[in-house]
Amino acid sequence: MSLEIKVVSASSLQNLETLGKSDPYVTINFQGEKKKTEVQDGTLDPVWEETLKWELGTKPPRADECIDITVKDYERIGKNRLLGKATIALRNVVHAAPGTPLDYDLGLLDANDSPTVGTLKLTISYTPPAGISATPDGGVDAATVGGMPQMPQQRNRDKLSSAKTKFQIRVRVVEGRQLMGCNINPVCQVSMNGNARQTKAHKGTTTPWFDQIFFFQVEKLPAEVMEDYLEFKVCNSSGIRASTLIGSFKCEVGMVYDQAEHAILNRWLVLANPEEPTPTVQGYLKVCVAVLGPGDVCPDITARQSDQDDVEANLLWSAGVHLQPATFILTVYCAQNLPRMDAGTMQTLKEVLGIGKASKELVDPYLMAGYAGREVQTKILYTNENPEFRQNLHMGFLFPSMCNVIKITLKDWDRVGDDDTIGTALIPISAISAPGENGYLPTFGPSWVSVYGARREWELLDSNDAEKMNEGSEEGCAYRGRALLALHTQVGSYPPSPTTALDNEEFNRIMRYRGTRKFILKCQISGAWHLEDAGKPLEVEVSIGNFGNKLENTMMPSPSSTHPSNPVFDGCKYYFLPWSGAEPFVTVHCDYEDVTHRLHCVNHITAIIMTVKKNLHSLKSLLRGRRYKQEEDKEVEDCIQTALSNLVSACNMALPEVDPVRHTETSLDRHLRDRRRLELDQMKTTVLKVDTSDPQQVVVELESALDTLEVLAQEPQSSIPDVFLWMMSGTKRLAYVRIPAHSVLFAHEPTSQGTLAGKFHTYTLRKPEDETKWGVGGVLRASVWLGREEEGRDWWQAHQDLQLTVYAESYENQVISVPGSGKWVDSGVLMTRPKFSDADGRLSLPLESITFSDGWTFQGDWFIDPDPSVRFTADAGRNLFTEEVFEQQMRVPGGTWIPAPNTWADARGHPACARNDINLPEGWAWRDAWTYDLQRAVDGEGWEYTVESGLLGWSPQEKLYHVSRRRRWIRERHLVQKVEKHQETLPVDGWEYAPLFRLQFHALERKMDVVRRRRWRRRLVPTQPGLPPTPRLSIKTEKGDEISQLTCPRMYVISAERHMYQLRAHIYQARDLPAGDKTGLSDPYAVVSFCNGTQQTDRQNATLCPTWDQTLIFDDVELTGPVATTRSQAPDIVIEVFDWDARGAPEFLGRVFCSPSVVEASLGYQPHALQWYPLARGDVTQGELLASFELLLKDGEELPMLPPTRGDLFMVPFGVRPLLQRTRVEVLCWGVRNMATYELQSVTRPSIEFECGGERVISPIMANIRLNPNFDEPHLVFDVELPKEELYMPPLTLRVVDHRSFGSKPVVATAVVNELHKYSVEPRAARCVFSLVQHAGGRNGSHIKGEDSLVSLSAHNEEEQR
C-alpha cells in the first residue's frame, strides 16, 4: 500500500529576492513524514517532474486526513522563506479507483491564508492494501433521521398453547432522564389489565434512579396475553400520588415476547403526553421487561449504567411521537501538554521497515467526541504535543436526548497497530444546560477541558487498568493534557457534514480565553505513615498539571518533592517516613487561566452542602432508633430549627461576583449564575413552607435540597487541573491521591474558600494497579493551598509560627573498584551516575557549579548532612526482635565436618559476629537462650546442606557430595526501656552504602555493598526581608559563563509550637462483618494506625460480631502547630479489621478512617461516647465498628486515670463502655425453607446457632429436612448481658450448620438481625410496678422476644440460591 505524489510544476510564484529570482522547492508532509523535491535555481515557473512516494504499511489512511504542501525559497544563508502553501483532503484520493491518478491544480496561500497568484500542479495516486476497496462516505442512518429503530423479531407465537397458560411478566424500572418540569417529584406507575404497581417518589429531580422490580401474574389464553397492554406512566407526585402526568409509554406484551429471550433489556422508552395533538418527548424511562411462560428462563434484568445503553439505537417510542433533529457544534481549537505515546525504539523500527522516520515529539494526536452513540473526530496532527486543530465537529442527535454526557477522547494515531487513547474527559449535559421555562440549551466555553488517564510516563506495555483509566471507565491517576473547546446547540436540522474548518479570525477571537495568570501551590507535609513498601527510599511529589512533575523536563523546575527517605517500621505492621523536626515544604509555580470566579462559586455552594450534611446527620442521629419521650421533643425541635434556619441564611447569601478586569465570562457562566440564584431562591421558599412538626418530612426536604445543591455545585468549565500527590521511589510512581483544585483554592471570603485550603487533612493514597480498590498505598497528613502568586503572602500570615529553611543539595557518588578490595572510586563500569548528582542520579550537580537565583544567597559553606532515616537500625520500632546468625561448616566429599573459615555469617553468607559475641543493645533484655531453628527445611540438628553456597539450593538431607552445611541460631530479645538514639552512631564521614544505587541505603558498610553516597548541603537565605521568590539553582557549564540546567533546593518548615499527645483508642466491638473463612465465620482482629505507630487488638475466634473491649494507648505522639489547629485538624486514625488465618496472609475485612476528639485535661475531662463507624472494602460498605478515640494533650498536664486492665490489656473504661443489663432472649425457631445446595450437596440435617453478645444457643438437629422441615423443639432461651442504650445493641447472628457424614459440619448459611431493640419488651412484673407506682427509676432486667418472621439466609456457595 502506497501513496505517490508527482510534483509537476509551479507558476507565477512570488519573487522574494532583491537580486535575481527565487530558488523554489516543494515540501510535502503526510502522516508526519516529510519529503521534498530538488531546488530549482532562479525561476518563478519551476518544473520538477519528481515523484515522491510514501509506504503506508497495512493500515489504510482515513478519508479525513490531509496532505500539507509548502513551496519555499531556498536560502544558502538564513532561513528558507515561504512562497505559498496548500492543503489537499484525502477523501477523493481514497475513494477513487485503486491506482487512478488524480490531477490537482492548486492555488497557493500565504502565511496569513490569503490567496496568492501562484499555482502548483500535482498528480496523486493511491494503491490500497489487498482486500480493501474504495467505499463512499457514510451518511446519517435511519435511527438519526427518525422513526422507530428496527428490533429483531422472533415470531414464535404459533408454538404457543391454545389452552389457558400461566405467564409472569417481570418489569424492572431502572431510571428516568430529561423529565420535563422543574422541582418535580417523579414517580413511575406500571399497569397491566387494571393492576398497577408504583415506585417510590423521588424529591426534586429530573433524573430519578428507581431500580424497582414488579411482577404481574396472568392466566389466560396466550393469544389474549400477547394482546394485553403494558403502560408506563411517570407522574409528578407532590404529596398526592400521581397527581400530574409527565409522560407515558404503552406497548403490547406480544411486542416484548417477540424479542430475543422474550425480553427487552435496559431499553429507553420515549415518554410522551397522549393528550397532545402532536405528542412530543416529555422524558425517557429505562426499563427491563421479561415475559415468562412455562419452561422459560428469565434473562439477567439487573439495572446497569453503561455508555452502550445511551445510544439512539436503544430507543423505543410510539408511532406519532415527534423527536426534533438537533446538532451539537463542538469547536476544537487546540490541545496542549500531551504525553509521549511512542518509544524511540519503535520510531527506529519504523525507519528500518521503511514506514517512517524517527520523530522528536512521539505523539500523533487527534480528538474524538462522542454522544448518544455518534462519534466525530478531528484531523490528525503528526508529531505534535501541542496541536492546533482549528476544526468544528458536528454531531447530529434527536432532541431532547436521553444521553447525559459528551465524551471527549484524545487519541494517538498509530501506523502499525490500533490507535492508543491518551485520556478522556466527560462533560455532563446536566451541567451545561437546564430544562424548563428558564432553561437553556447545552452550551460550553470556550474553556479548557483536562483529560486524565494512566501514569503520564511512557510504558511499553499498558495494563488493563491503564487502558480503563485512559478510556475514562476508572478514575485517572495522572494528568495527560487538556483541550480548548466550545460548544453550542442548534435545534431543527441535522449537520450537512461532520467537520468544517475554523478560519483564522474565529481562532484569534478566543485568544482572550487563553491568557494565563501566575498561581502558586503550597504544601506542608507533616507525616507519612501506613506504608507497605519498605525496600527502597520514598519521597512525595506534588504537582498540578505538568507543573511540579519532576519527570517532565520541558517545565520550569519547582521544589515540588520531598527528599528521599528510608521507611521505618512502626512496631506492628506498617512503615512510616521519619521526618523529625523539620517538615518538608514544597511549592509549585504554575500558569493557568484565572477562573477563580467559577471555583469560588463552587466552593460557596459546597460550603452550603457541608452545612446541610452536618445538620442532617445530627437530626438523623437523634431520630435513629429512639423511643421518644416528652422531654426529648425539645432537642429534636431545636435541631430542626437550626437546620432550616442555617439553610435559609445560606440561600440568602450573595454568590461570588465576577471581576471584569481579571475574569473572562462565557455564556455558560451567565446562565449558571442565573440558574444558581433562581434555584437557591426557590429552595428558600420551599424550606420556609416545611412542616416542622414532622421530623421525617424535614429529613426528606433536606435530602431533596442536598440533591439540588450537588447539581448546582458542578462546574464543567474548570480550566485548572486537579492536584496530585504521588508517593514515589526514584522515578517509579507507587500511590497517589487526586485533589480537585477548587477544594484547596484560597479566597479572602471564607465561604468562597476551598474546604481543604491551607488546612491539615489526612489523605489516603491509592495504588493505580490495585484492581480490588481495597488497598491503601499510604496515608499523608498535609496542608495544601492554591492561590494567585500575589496571595502567597496570605499563606505566610496565617502560618506565622513557621520558619522556612532552604538547602541546596547534591549527592557525592562512589563505587567500589574491585569487590572486596575496599577501594572506592568515582569512575568505572559500575559508576552509572555523575560524581555529584541529585538523589535520583539524573542531573549532574558539581558543588562548584551550583549558583543561586535572584533574591537568595548562600549562608556558610557546604557541609555533610546524612539522611536521618539511616540512623534507624533493623530493630527500630519493634518491641520484639530476633537475633540470628548462621554457623557454617565444611568438608571434603565424604570427610568429617570442620568449622569453615567463615564460621559465623549472616543469611547471605557475609561474615558476622559469633553468637556469643553479639552484644545486647541498651534498653533490651534477652527472652531465652540461643537455640538452633528447627522450623525450616532442616534435619533434626538444624543443619541444611549444599554443594556450593550461593550457587545451589540447600537440602535437609545429607549426601556424600555435600561439602558445605549451615544452621541458623536464633535468640529473641524484647524492649524493656526506650533509649534515645545518639548522633554518634552515624559514621563521621557521612557515607551511605547500598548494593545498587536504586536500592535502599544504610549507614554501616556491608560486604555486599558496591555503591555509596553522601549528602552535601548548603543553606540558602533570602537577601531581602519580606516574601522571597521561589528559590532555584543554576548549574553552570565548565566554561562558567553558560547555564546548562536548572534545579531546585529542598525546603522545610519548622514550627515554633510542638505538643505531645496521648491517643486512647477504645475499640469495643464490631457487628455484621463479612465472612472470611469457608465456614461463614471470621477470626477478626482490629489494627489501629495513627501517625508513626500501629497497634492491634486481640483476636476473637469464629464470630461475625466480635467484642474486643480493649483500649489501645499511643503514648508520646508529637504534633506540630497550635492546640487549636490540632483540635479542628487532627490526624485521622486508620482502623482495619482482618480475619486471621492459620495459613497464609490475613484476609482484609474492612477499613474506616476516624477523627479523634482532642481533650485538654485541665479544662475538664468528659469521656467521649462510643460511636458506630461503617467499615468499607473499596466502594462496598459492610459491617460496623463501635469505638471512640480521645487525643489527650500531655505537655505536663495530669492525664485521666488509665483504663482498667484485663491481664496485660487495657479495657474500655467504665465511663465510655455501655451500661449492661441482664437480658433474656427468647427465639421461636420453627424451621427452614428453600435451602440452597452447598458444595453440590443438599442440606438434609440442619441445626441453627444463635449468637448475641458472646452467648450462644443451638437448636436441635433436624432429622430430615425432606420429611419435616420444622424443628421438634422450636423454643430456645438464653441469658446475656446487653447494653441498656439501644444505639449500642449488638445484632443477633444466625448460622445454619448441616450435619453430614464423617463428622463434617459446614456452615451453609448465615444471617444477621440488627436493631434488636425493636423486639425488646419489659418484663411483666416491671410493667405492673411502673403502672401502679409510676416509678421513674431504671429497670433491672429486660426481655427480647422475636415475632414470627422469615429470616433470609445468605448461602455460602457459588450457586444461585433458589
TrEMBL record:
<dbReference type="Pfam" id="PF08150">
    <property type="entry name" value="FerB"/>
</dbReference>
<dbReference type="InterPro" id="IPR006614">
    <property type="entry name" value="Peroxin/Ferlin"/>
</dbReference>
<feature type="region of interest" description="Disordered">
    <location>
        <begin position="1343"/>
        <end position="1362"/>
    </location>
</feature>
<keyword id="KW-0735">Signal-anchor</keyword>
<dbReference type="GO" id="GO:0030659">
    <property type="term" value="C:cytoplasmic vesicle membrane"/>
</dbReference>
<feature type="domain" description="C2">
    <location>
        <begin position="1"/>
        <end position="104"/>
    </location>
</feature>
<dbReference type="InterPro" id="IPR037726">
    <property type="entry name" value="C2A_Ferlin"/>
</dbReference>
<dbReference type="GO" id="GO:0005886">
    <property type="term" value="C:plasma membrane"/>
</dbReference>
<dbReference type="InterPro" id="IPR037722">
    <property type="entry name" value="C2C_Ferlin"/>
</dbReference>
<dbReference type="GO" id="GO:0007009">
    <property type="term" value="P:plasma membrane organization"/>
</dbReference>
<keyword id="KW-0677">Repeat</keyword>
<keyword id="KW-1133">Transmembrane helix</keyword>
<dbReference type="InterPro" id="IPR012561">
    <property type="entry name" value="Ferlin_B-domain"/>
</dbReference>
<dbReference type="InterPro" id="IPR037721">
    <property type="entry name" value="Ferlin"/>
</dbReference>
<dbReference type="InterPro" id="IPR037720">
    <property type="entry name" value="C2B_Ferlin"/>
</dbReference>
<dbReference type="Pfam" id="PF08151">
    <property type="entry name" value="FerI"/>
</dbReference>
<dbReference type="InterPro" id="IPR035892">
    <property type="entry name" value="C2_domain_sf"/>
</dbReference>
<keyword id="KW-0597">Phosphoprotein</keyword>
<dbReference type="InterPro" id="IPR000008">
    <property type="entry name" value="C2_dom"/>
</dbReference>
<feature type="domain" description="C2">
    <location>
        <begin position="1042"/>
        <end position="1173"/>
    </location>
</feature>
<protein>
    <recommendedName>
        <fullName>C2 domain-containing protein</fullName>
    </recommendedName>
</protein>
<feature type="domain" description="C2">
    <location>
        <begin position="1205"/>
        <end position="1329"/>
    </location>
</feature>
<dbReference type="InterPro" id="IPR037723">
    <property type="entry name" value="C2D_Ferlin"/>
</dbReference>
<dbReference type="GO" id="GO:0061025">
    <property type="term" value="P:membrane fusion"/>
</dbReference>
<dbReference type="Pfam" id="PF00168">
    <property type="entry name" value="C2"/>
</dbReference>
<feature type="domain" description="C2">
    <location>
        <begin position="307"/>
        <end position="443"/>
    </location>
</feature>
<keyword id="KW-0812">Transmembrane</keyword>
<feature type="domain" description="C2">
    <location>
        <begin position="145"/>
        <end position="269"/>
    </location>
</feature>
<keyword id="KW-0472">Membrane</keyword>
<dbReference type="InterPro" id="IPR012968">
    <property type="entry name" value="FerIin_dom"/>
</dbReference>
